[in-house]
Each structure stands twice: as C-alpha cells, then as structure tokens.
Design goal:
Helix 3 packs across helix 6. The radius of gyration is 17 Å and the shape is globular. The protein contains 6 helices and 2 strands; from the N terminus they run H-H-H-H-H-E-E-H. With 119 residues, the protein is mostly helical. The longest helix has 21 residues. Helix content is 62%, strand content 10%.
C-alpha cells in the first residue's frame, strides 16, 4: 500500500504534467528569455510547424535545443503539439489562443522599439 507522501507526490506530478505553468516570472525567464522562442513563434505562425523544417530554417538551432524550447512552450501553454498516428511519426506544433495573444503583444513591443529606436 502506498504512503500518503507517495500519493501526494503522484498527484502533484500528474497535476503539473497536465496543467500549464502560470507563473509570470518563470515564463519570462524560462521561455521568453530563450533567444529562440520568439523566432520559433514567428515560424510557426507562418505555417512552418514541423520540427525538421524549424531546424532547417533557423540557423544555429540544434534539434536538442529545438525540442527543449518546444517542450517549454508547451509547458507554459504557448504551444500545442499535434501527433499523427503515421509511420514515420508526424508531429506539428500550433500556437494556442494564449500563444497567439502573447505573440501579438510581442509584435506590439517590437513596433514600439522600432518607433523609438529604429530597426
């Protein structure tokens, strides 16, 4: 029989693996602090949503770092992952409604920066 601590640990692990992270400070540091996040969001919004293509169109990005970034964005509810039951496996990434709104805010910040400081 499981102890109370083991049950609480499993419940906490299940809850954190299913619910998106919501801490603003950790999202800024973990996700938006990554130099690839905004660029990947731009590519995904343009329809480049498969991992292989994302690596090809992003100079200097490795598959390992791509997967870390994508998983982080999923954890924060910015992206959703769609897996297809095919051989070979096919995976696509899409912005969630939160991710789309966040991208629009980032685009506004970029326009503000251009307005005051140029391109």
């Amino acid at each position: 029989m499981a102890t109370v601590e083991e049950i609480n640990y499993r419940d906490d692990a299940a809850r954190t693996s299913q619910a998106p992270r919501t801490s603003f400070n950790s999202m800024i540091a973990d996700c938006l602090g990554c130099k690839w996040t905004v660029l990947l969001m731009e590519h995904i919004i343009q329809g480049i949503n498969r991992p292989g293509k994302l690596v090809k169109v992003t100079d200097g990005l490795t598959t390992k770092v791509l997967n870390q970034c994508l998983n982080r964005m999923i954890d924060y509810g910015i992206l959703e992952k769609k897996s297809f039951a095919e051989i070979p496996p096919k995976v696509e990434y899409y912005l969630t409604p939160f991710g789309s709104e966040l991208f629009q805010l980032l685009r506004e910040i970029k326009l503000l920066q251009i307005k005051y400081f140029g391109d």
